[in-house]
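User: Here's a protein and a ligand (2-acetamido-2-deoxy-beta-D-glucopyranose). What would the complex look like?
Assistant: Let me lay out the input and then the predicted complex.
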Amino acid sequence: MAPLPPGSLIVIVGITGYIASHTGLLALKAGYRIRGTVRSLTKAEDLRSAYEKEGLDVSRDKLEFVILDDLLSEAQFEAAFTGADGVIHPALPDLYGEDVVNKIIQSTLIPMRAAAKVGIKRFVLTGTLVSVLTPGSPSIPLDRLITDKDWNEEGVQKYLNATEEEKKSPAFVGVVYAAGKTLAEQAAWKYIETESPPFEFTVVLPAMTWGPKVYGSAATSLTWLWSILKGENSTLSRSPIYIEDVRDAGKLHVLSLHEQEAAGKRIWAAGHPVGWTEILDILRKHYPDQPIPKNPPTSPLNPCPWRIDLSLSTKLLGGKWISLEDCIVDSAKSLGY
Ligand SMILES: *[C@@H]1O[C@H](CO)[C@@H](O)[C@H](O)[C@H]1NC(C)=O
Ligand SMILES: *[C@@H]1O[C@H](CO)[C@@H](O)[C@H](O)[C@H]1NC(C)=O
């Protein structure tokens, strides 16, 4: 099946999100027409203004918004997808509700079924590094590259094994997210295999995402950088992983619409393996007046010791990722520093 040419209509589900809003920006730049789904039209008009400030033509034949407020409603997805050629789906249900793992799975499969019904040609799902491994887990292999064949089975087991006590802990949301995204992506590939829908399917797997926001408040990952700039060190107890710039993550979503090589693949949007010393050194160099915290000790998990096979995504990006330094400095600027 041919890649989607410019002028095709692409639906971006939850377009006001951090990665989604960059994806929309880059898709418009690439000449696609965009239909963004939103939960409220107020946010939509803020996003339109933000895109306009970037010098884009945001007239209604280029950029339209539709309300979609239930990620489990096949009827809403069908209505939103009708007449479109491609779908990009980065949206997630609320992670603090009931029955979240099942909701993550269903909010992946339901739009795929709707897309098949209305004849969508390409479907790009936003996955996550966490569906492949749990950052900081000592069982991550160090003697070989992590590839698109890897799955976070350990994360799923951890969820299935959890005691009632563990389920009440605030950290359990991370376990739910890892298990939900792993099982959802596996269910998605199984759907492709057994149902042979009319669309080609790609999953983009971001790692930890930093980079400037297009508009709105800071995404959770950016608030971690913010806390470091303010001199707080609690973020530094996290295991450093791969960091990619949100602009590269957005670009890989758009490339997945028009590069034939991307069809049927899991595509890493992972960028650079990092250590805290490297990140803090960049911050000290550019923000000598900020109270940047002391380096935490190096350890077998800091800097990030494992390696991911980025060959396909690096090739799709034309050989070049946005540098860690540019990513960090542009993130800080977008936070007002
Ligand atoms: C889950 O439980 C099984 C069976 O008790 C055990 O073998 C496995 O190691 C546990 N896995 C995790 C990740 O806790
Ligand atoms: C944060 O700072 C406190 C006080 O200096 C220190 O005891 C602690 O180990 C630091 N934590 C990290 C993760 O660096």
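Summary: The chain has one domain: 9-334.
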